[in-house]
Amino acid sequence: MYLLIHSPNRDTTYVALAKSEGIFDTENYSAQANANMDLMIDIDAILKRNNATPQNLKGIIVMSGPGSFAALRSGIVIANTTGQVLNIPVAGVGGNETYVAEELFAEGMKVLGGMKEFVPVIPAYGREANVSTPKKV
Q1: Cα 88 to Cα 124: distance, rounded to the nearest angstrom
Q2: 60-99 as b/e, with b when 16 or more CB fall inside 10 Å?
Q3: What is the DSSP track for the chain?
Q4: What is the tens place of the pLDDT at every residue in 101-133?
Q5: I need a surface site. Which of 6, 86, 103, 107 has the fewest CB within 10 A?
């Protein structure tokens, strides 16, 4: 079983479960202030709904960019952490915000095909992060 994490922008994220044949369940949500926590809750919910645990995962596919700094960071951190803890491959797929789950899955399966163990995904933001400098107090 494979987990897909796609955060096309900072307001929307979806997760999906797939087998080699394709996607069989998805969970969509609009990200709010606690995006990382919401994403973890949605991953837990989709696994439970399918009587699965993280240990059932053979790999993770995550959108690696370009895209929103915050959205990519959240998805990639969770994918990398989960992949490292479980020692499963994590495939970063570059593309664009218009990717649908099936396209992300197809591209990710090509990348996962040659992977045997965890290698961290590096985000490709597409531009410098727009991070403000700290304000003087």
Answers
A1: 21
A2: bbbbbbbbbbbbbbbbbbbbbebbeebebbbbbbebeeeb
A3: -EEEEEEEETTEEEEEEEETTEEEEEEEEE--TTHHHHHHHHHHHHHHHTT--GGG-SEEEEEEESS-HHHHHHHHHHHHHHHHHHT--EEEEE--TT--HHHHHHHHHHHHTT--S--PPPP--SS----PPPPP-
A4: 888 899 999 999 989 889 999 988 766 666 677
A5: 103
- The pair of structure tokens assigned to 28 is 């969509």
Domains in the chain with CATH codes? 2-112 (3.30.420.40)
* Six-digit token string for 24: 């069989």
What are 67's two structure tokens? 């895209």
